[in-house]
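Margin note: ligand = 2-acetamido-2-deoxy-beta-D-glucopyranose.
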Amino acid sequence: MGKGFFLSKGVGVLLIICGAASVATIIALSVVYSQEKAKNNEVSPTNGGSTTNPPVTTPAPTTSNKPWDQYRLPKTLVPEHYNLMLRPRLTPDETTKLYIFTGESSVDFKCVEETDLILIHSNKLNYTKAPTLESVNPAVTAPNINKYWLQKVTQYLVIELDAKLKKDHMYRLSTDFVGELADDLGGFYRSEYEEDGVKRYGCCNNSMQPTDARKSFPCFDEPALKAVFNITLTHPQGTIALTGPSLGNKLIQTTFAPTEKMSTYLLAYIVSDFDFVNNTIDGVLIRIFARKSAIAAGQGEYALNTTGPILKFFEDYYNSKYPLPKSDQIALPDFNAGAMENWGLITYRETALLYDPEFSSNGNKERIATIIAHELAHMWFGNLVTLRWWNDLWLNEGFASYVEYLGANYAEPDWGMADLIVLNDVHRVFAVDALTSSHPLSSKEEDIQRPEQISELFDAISYSKGASVLRMLSDFLTEDVFKMGLRTYLKEFAFGNTVYSDLWKHLQDAVDNTPLPGLPNTVADIMNTWVLQMGFPVVTIDTASGTVTQKHFLLDPDSEVTVVSPFKYQWTVPIKWMKTGTEQKPVWLVEKSETVDMMKATGTDWVLANLNVVGYYRVNYDQSNWNKLLNALNTNHSVIPVINRAQLVDDAFNMARAKIVSTTLALSTTVYLDKERDFMPWESATDNMDFFYLMFDRSEVYGHMQAYLQKQVIPLFNYYKAETGNWTKDLPGHLDQYNLVNAISLACKTGHKECTDLAKGWFEMWMNNPAKNPIHPNLRSTVYCNAIAAGGAKEWEFAWAQFTKANAIEADKLRYAMACTKEPWLLNRYLEYTLTPEKMRKQDATSTIVYIANNVVGQALTWDFIRARWTYIFNEYGGGSFSFSNLINGVTKRFSTEFELKQLRQFKEDNADIGFGSGTLAVDQSIERTISNMKWIEENTKTVSNWFQEAIKPL
Ligand SMILES: *[C@@H]1O[C@H](CO)[C@@H](O)[C@H](O)[C@H]1NC(C)=O
Ligand SMILES: *[C@@H]1O[C@H](CO)[C@@H](O)[C@H](O)[C@H]1NC(C)=O
Ligand SMILES: *[C@@H]1O[C@H](CO)[C@@H](O)[C@H](O)[C@H]1NC(C)=O
Ligand SMILES: *[C@@H]1O[C@H](CO)[C@@H](O)[C@H](O)[C@H]1NC(C)=O
Ligand SMILES: [Zn+2]
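Resulting structure:
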């Protein structure tokens, strides 16, 4: 998937666009073959049929060694082919009042080991008649079914036979079933939206990853059990003349051409009444689907424009033709993750695919380009070649999260966005990976069994650390060698499955075929130190002696690492570096400590390591070298590359938290900012100041900090005021546009009156004339937020009224900004709205709660709210959701008192029986973070307060 924070997912095998409440044309799409085969057989609608449920067993004792109590399938049967017919009902069933779908499925499988037991995944499906088993070869007879039942916990349909299936014979299992078309955003699900005041059921979206295909039809639901799928959908035929909720009584049956051999989690079928825009590039049909109003407004055009070039980029990068004849991408009104890489039918949140110059910021646009690149990268890496099991998810997601920057940079070369991986991924994941509750990238296959264990892997470590270490690998191998290994890997394993070491092997072959300047070890040996142990090192360079040492970097130096590492927390570290502004020959740090004579620096010479932050580690120096670096920043900061200016700030602040350097040293790295105009260092500084805000916005330090930051940001604010001709002109540069937002956000946050007046003035102009919004799309989030924070109920109600009629792009900005109000009663009411689906889409609930918690006034309200509603949230939003860890981390990140720690522990205890699902690890991370925050505040408040007071004294 795309990231859920940004999670992405994948598989579109089939897409039927079918008419719903007020019905329009029906279009059937085959994902995999170019010619789709719509038979257009009219069939009359029938009822779902009565249900005869097989018995359902009670939860199994965890100690059971029965095959059906194991989460992994036995290795006895291998599917080859599915025939699947599905029929979603767009009106509720008369008796049960449920929205349902009915299905018929047969699967041809081969017996590879004799057995008298068939286990096939099935979740929340009811069987309407007894399953039947036949032999595909008429000369062989199939055993009879003795009995069958549903094993609820492990999600199986279990079939016991009266005799053994014979090795190497093919059998066919046929089932008729019914399932609920729920609005739970998982599997085959229902989605409702309104257009022109008419409620529409854009029914039957689809989200299978990781383990929800089994909610749609019985299947061998493991990524290595690839098969070919023949799929037929029955759906209502709409006529444009028809309005209102009537569906008419005509049905259409659409049969798709067989898919390529593929994993179940990458399947997709969708029924909706959407429109599309299309193009054909080198024989590949590209279509962008969205609700009619969005397509009519031209919002699919940017995605259509960028998809072709990005596909061509990846064909070249992988040296492999796009494996399918078409590439469909669809924007869904309800979607949990950011996007999902279904093969040939990629699904997105509306805001991740639709662009509208009138509403979208440049950040929205960049997100679209990067998510498209991420998902298209999966078409090969992930879909064509698939990791055998979910424990290697990090390689799939880390890879796509790395090359998304390359693909997007190719589509938008003027943006200069490739380096942003340092802020978005490397710095971001450092924060998590510096905790003792982190985990290695790679997990053991046997440790990842249950669906929630799989879901839990969709985290920052898999995505961002995966991306960071692959970027480092590509850098020290050189991109050419990296591509060479990648290409032979994809070629060897096309339509098959792999483990991560298969990629290392191919990269090693590429290395062996190229005269590379020596690596200190094999690719596998180097990479294992990054993949098989959690965390990362801080490399310390003593420029007096030239000694270079490494140590496991822990945010809390007193925390205890209880997990034993096979490498004793030592890494094989590639070091690119410069001396006094001139790049030097890279070195490797293999041992705990080594001496590099070249790194001695005397006089005015200084050393700067981890150039452009291609390495996944932090760097510390002796005090004298730090002083020289600070001096360089303050006198002529451009001698230090811009990415490393961002690095110096981020490393210093984090090493200060880890008590490796002093907090005053960290604060000193911000002194030069009044002269800095580049985005990356400012962004790095504001990210780190966020922590100071979280720790101090309830304390006396706050005032001094505000005064200091205001002093630092005013020159930037004035610079942009001049550059934009007093806020009237657009800036050309993409990163400049970002930094302009930083300038306004921080100036307003620190209470700079000119800034607040500006925001209030713009917002008031809009309130006076709602039809004409005068605020530039890039500035809307921050201007709305500041105007609402400065205002009261009137501003808030106006924003809410706009929100209820806004398109998805605009709605996201308002949704964020409404969390900025300082009125507790408005925040409390807003919290209630988050759990009211008529007011807010389920997909947006958790992120809105986190926005409210970010507000110092909302913090305590949110925590009370979460604790009071945990059971409800967990049950209602837990199903298809990947965002529990974001929710828990988000709501607790300000925690820094004994009392909050106690409450957090109590919360963990009180809900032990319900659990925390994919947020389990986040609870422990939050406890660890709270303890470390408490210590930090105790040790630093005085120093920090004094430092700010000194820094704002007039000279
Ligand atoms: C499946 O059967 C259960 C138990 O009888 C029932 O509660 C549920 O509503 C059924 N689901 C569907 C979609 O018919
Ligand atoms: C799948 O569909 C193809 C073409 O429509 C057909 O030739 C093939 O027999 C089908 N496979 C099975 C197992 O029914
Ligand atoms: C776009 O779709 C229309 C309708 O299906 C088709 O007639 C047209 O040829 C397509 N255009 C391209 C460039 O693929
Ligand atoms: C898409 O490309 C066309 C042709 O190059 C261009 O005119 C149009 O402005 C582009 N649209 C967007 C939204 O980028
Ligand atoms: Zn992905």
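The longest strand covers residues 77-88.
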